[in-house]
Amino acid sequence: MPKMSYGRAMTWLAEQEPDRVAVVYEGEQRTRAALERRANRLARAYQHLGVVEGALVTVALPNGIEFLEACLAIWKLGATPQPVSARLPEIERNAIIELADPALVVGVDRGSYGLRHTVPVGHVPDSQISDAPLPDVVPRHARAMTSGGSTGRPKLIIDLSPGEVDPTKPENGMQLGGTTLVPGPLYHAGPFITAYQCLLSGGTVVVMPRFDAQQALGLIEQHRVDWVLFVPTMMQRIWRLPEDERSEYDLSSIRRVMCTGAPSPAWLKRAWIGWLGPEKIWEAYGGSERIAGTVISGTEWLEHPGSVGKPTADRRLRVLDADGNECPPGQVGEIFMLPAKGPGTTYRYLGAETQATDDGWESLGDLGWLDEDGYLFMADRKTDMIVSGGVNVYPAEVEAALDAHPDVRSSAVIGLPDDDLGQRIHAIVDSPAGILEEELYFHLAKHLARYKIPRSYEIVKEPLRDDAGKLRRSALREARIEAMAQKSGS
User: Fold this and answer.
1) Region of poorest pLDDT, from 156-160, 161-165, 321-325
2) Which long-range contacts (CB under 8 A, 24 or more apart) does 106-110 make?
3) Are strands 227-230 and 256-259 parallel, antiparallel or unpaired?
4) Domain ranges of the chain
């Protein structure tokens, strides 16, 4: 079957099996036909508010059916959803909206942005608006994800692939008409893409409001989930449940557990492989830019323990040293990638410049190496980006918020090892007045999403930057890791 627009694919699926359940959330269900009708009516309501083909629409909704309906409505108009956290502080959301200049903001109170059109959470369009299918249109850009950016300023990653799909061909190892559990926030690329890959290939999407280890296992058993995307922190919290609690649940329906968002610790991967079997445990590495990515099955991983796999779909990668020379197998260098269709074919930034080599290869700032068989292994981040609970946090963004406090002279934000989160966010704050940690927390809560707020603080009274304004985060991090090791050994 030829590819269809996302909107037309939903219409076609509703025509095939109108009463089949498409979405489950907190005990509420939506059939294909109901989802289609509601998205059609919502699309016309958005159209009345100025959403046109090619426009961006900011979606600031929490996980739930309403989120999925809003994105379907946006696609049916040929526009592009631009998801953000529903809990984003106003200051941060304002910066993103200023950059995106969306035709509509979904999930905020009316009048929040002056003359810019908005609709609140729980918006229900007039029942007199038609819910019939709309004229078919293919969105030029499937999505526009948000990133804090290494500069501490927001940027959008505009996906250059059109919003079209063959609804008879499941992607990413899913099965036709299967059931997928989405335990992560839909404003992140992995859960967002997972949900629509399942929905638009005729599957059932089970969405969680937030991750809970026992609830996730219960939903897998209850809905016979066969595909799920976890970040390592989620897998670790499930594994650390008492064994008798884990073993209560029937997980025999699972065909694939995909792990992404951060490198998975080897011990955790072995534990899950031993629990569910190597053929069910998979891992992927890549970025929202889709320059290139790797994937590996548990069976392959046992032959190449610690690897994140090989490039997929004719994408290419290479590892270069500091002089730009290709590294031999086993030598650590910076990972560079190239899409199957060549440079600049998968994304463009809004709010930042693309950094590429002269021949178009790009890097996400990661270090790693290849083995003799071409399998990729991750070493560390070249940049100072912190990966906490599978979520990327840029220190510059947190430091900018800390430094906005009048009693803070300078600050440094680093990631320290954490058994649960992978890395915890630690703030070193230069405050001659001796600011209290509680005051810092309440200050940051006005500026940052909760997951970006440091878990620990260290108040110092000496400048953290040199006269040139440079900050050596790596040295600060190493010193604190060494102190932690000495303390644990004493």
Assistant:
1) 321-325
2) 106/57, 106/58, 106/59, 106/60, 106/61, 106/70, 107/59, 107/60, 107/61, 107/62, 108/60
3) parallel
4) 4-262, 386-489
Beta bridge partners of 349: 157
> 205-241 pLDDT, tens per residue?
999 999 999 999 999 999 999 999 999 889 988 998 9
Closest among 38, 6, 44 to 164, alpha carbons compared: 6
Strands (DSSP E) contained in 286-332 are: 294-297, 307-311, 316-320
HSE-up (13 A, CA, CB side) for residue 233: 18
Under the banding of pLDDT at 50, 70 and 90, the label for residue 148 is: low
CB crowding 20-35: b at 16 or more within 10 Å, else e: ebbbbbeeeebbbbbb
**Superfamily (CATH) of domain 4-262:** ANL, N-terminal domain (3.40.50.12780)
Phi–psi pair at 151, nearest 5 degrees? -90, -5
Query: If we measure between CA atoms, which residue out of 375, 374, 488, 398 comes closest to residue 451?
Result: 398
**How are strands ordered across the β-sheet holding 155-159?**
144-147, 155-159, 347-350
Q: By C-alpha distance, which of 352, 354, 442 is closest to 401?
A: 442
Is the pLDDT at 370 greater than 80? The verdict is yes
Query: Class of 386-489 per CATH?
Result: alpha beta
The pLDDT tens digits for 60-119 are 999 999 999 999 999 999 999 999 999 988 888 999 999 999 999 999 999 899 999 999
CB 168 within 8 A of CB 201: yes
Residue 466: the pLDDT is 66
H/E stretch holding 301: helix 298-303
- d(Cα 277, Cα 444) in Å, to the nearest integer? 43
